[in-house]
Design brief:
Elements (H helix, E strand, L loop, with lengths): L2 E8 L2 E8 L2 E9 L9 E10 L4 E5 L6 E4 L15 H4 L6 H4 L13 E8 L8 E3 L4 E2 L3 E4 L5 E3 L5 H15 L5 E4 L8 H24 L4 E4 L4 H9 L4 E6 L2 H14 L7 E3 L12 H8 L3 E3 L5 E6 L3 E7 L9 H23 L3 E6 L6 H15 L6 E6 L5 E5 L6 H5 L15 H18 L5 E5 L1 H8 L3 H11 L3 E5 L8 E5 L1
Parallel strand pairs: 1-14, 6-8, 11-12, 14-15, 18-19, 22-23
Antiparallel strand pairs: 1-2, 2-3, 4-5, 4-7, 4-13, 5-6, 7-8, 9-10, 10-12, 16-17, 17-18, 19-21, 20-21, 22-24
Helix pairs in contact: 3-4, 8-9, 11-12
């Protein structure tokens, strides 16, 4: 199926939409201020060596010096895959205990050293560094200082050895090691060779920059979203890659000429008067992707709920009555839902465990056809998915690999009124909470008066339907209770002031 990639760029935010047949299938957002430093390679300068901690502070041009432990130096390259439990837990073990050469014999103040950021700076802590460089590609991770050929542990054991042998042939005799990522499990030799070429070119540029640039310089930045579009999202069915910024179009063209020449003919500068995302009503689709309910063309609808542990998707017939009998109505709704769910998984970038509650189907043939259609739609997904079929309770269980934050987690935050619960107490429930709270306060304190400050809806209920209960409590505690409406308060918020 033919697809177009639309890129909306602004200094503060980059948005990328993949469109097929006029409908958005995938959306990615990257904000300039939220881009981290992890993966960036620097030519650092040793600012201070701490033998007692077997660590060093490295100046990489940031406000605070970054932190490098002896275990992350090149001398420990052979033990990188066998990190000790103590080190994994964050403990600083001595160089002798770890079998490493002491840091004071490897580094000295003023020395230039190539390092890569492992963890971003947090609060008063500087970035965490490693001297063991790794460069991530679409399918592979390149280890320029190692000769190890590894395969992701998530790939079934019976396939790992074959993949390792293929990689040994493809990587050639030019040195360096590779780790095959999970999404490279089904890649062709041509795709793997293209990724190897890109990674070797990237490393060559890093080495060249390390000779030309002064210490505390950036040698390599992890690819931004625009560059990752060319590396990760362009496929044979991609017709065009349209971007609405002349400056970024020129930069992307240079990047494509160097690393991805096959994508050059597809790059186009969009200079239309209408915003590029207006062409396919993409902003409307973004708004819908942040809601719980997804309407189907037939009249049915989906309800999507994201929790900490998993995502649930409920299918409902709604107003669909188009089929000749109820079984056919259910079957057609589920078929349409299977297409919509696959699209929503991509659009919202939902990962982890996903439970789909299709409408119960009596016929096994209907259930098999819905499952087959769902798997067909999922096969278009760039992210690895696994469908476990229907459970004994009739729920479809599946997983989708987590690659980044979901769209909702990127663009939204928990509601200040409901604190992320998705619901708020009714005004009546809040009035009863207030009555109980006043009774507790009256037993501990002896004020002249209690004043209730709450939302207008709660105060209105006290003045109307709950006035009798309020007066009864006032008589019982022998204190007057006054009311004050506060428009800025959410429905669950209230304050009891002792006067």
């Amino acid at each position: 199926m033919q697809q177009d990639i639309l890129i909306n760029w602004s200094p503060q935010e980059t948005r990328v939409a993949v469109v097929e047949q006029g409908a958005v299938q995938e959306l990615q957002v990257e904000r300039t201020l939220e881009r981290g430093l992890v993966g960036n390679v620097y030519l650092g300068k040793v600012a201070r060596v701490l033998p007692g901690m077997q660590s060093a502070f490295i100046d990489i041009g940031l406000d605070r010096a970054a932190f490098l432990h002896v275990a992350d130096l090149m001398s420990s390259i052979n033990s990188r895959h066998a990190e000790s439990d103590a080190q994994a837990a964050g403990a600083l073990t001595s160089a002798a205990a770890a079998g490493l050469q002491p840091i004071e014999k490897q580094l000295f103040e003023g020395q230039a050293v190539m390092v890569q950021v492992l963890k971003d700076p947090i609060g008063t802590k500087g970035a965490r560094l490693t001297a063991q460089i790794s460069i991530a590609g679409r399918l592979l991770v390149f280890l320029p200082q190692d000769n190890h050929i590894g395969v992701s542990q998530k790939i079934p054991p019976r396939q790992r050895e074959d993949l390792r042998q293929r990689m040994q042939v493809l990587s050639g005799e030019l040195g360096g090691g590779f780790i095959l990522r999970t999404n490279g499990e089904d890649a062709s030799d041509a795709e793997l060779a293209e990724d190897i070429s890109y990674l070797r070119k990237t490393w060559a540029r890093i080495k060249d920059a390390s000779v030309r640039l002064p210490p505390a310089s950036v040698l390599h930045q992890d690819l931004n979203l625009l560059q990752r579009v060319l590396r990760d999202m362009v496929v044979e069915s991609t017709q065009t890659i349209r971007i609405d910024s002349r400056e970024q179009f020129d930069k992307l063209t240079v990047f494509a000429q160097t690393f991805m020449p096959a994508t050059l003919p597809k790059l186009q500068l969009y200079a239309g008067e209408r915003p590029i995302f207006d062409l396919f009503n993409i902003d409307d689709d973004i708004a819908k992707a942040l809601g719980r309910r997804v309407d189907l063309k037939s009249g049915g609808y989906l309800v999507v709920d994201q929790t900490e542990a998993l995502t649930t998707i409920d299918v409902n017939t709604g107003g669909f009555v188009g089929a000749r009998n109820f079984d056919d109505t259910i079957f057609k709704t589920n078929l349409e839902a299977s297409q919509a769910i696959a699209r929503q998984l991509r659009l919202r970038n939902l990962g982890g465990i996903v439970i789909v509650d299709f409408i119960d189907m009596v016929k096994d043939s209907h259930r098999d056809n819905v499952l087959a259609e769902f798997q067909k739609q999922l096969s278009r997904d760039r992210i690895k998915t696994t469908v476990n079929g229907f459970s004994a309770l009739g729920l479809l269980e599946m997983t989708r690999k987590r690659t980044r934050e979901s769209l909702a987690h990127q663009l939204c935050e928990p509601c200040s009124a409901c604190m992320g619960k998705g619901v708020v107490k009714t005004a009546r429930s809040v009035t009863y909470d207030i009555l109980r709270e006043i009774l507790r306060e009256a037993r501990q304190f002896n004020p002249r008066e209690f004043r209730v400050v709450a939302s207008p809806k709660v105060i209105e209920l006290f003045l109307d339907e709950e006035s009798q209960h309020l007066a009864g409590l006032s008589d019982f505690i022998g204190k007057p209770i006054s009311l004050q409406a506060e428009a800025a308060m959410a429905q669950e918020q209230y304050d009891i002031v002792l006067m």
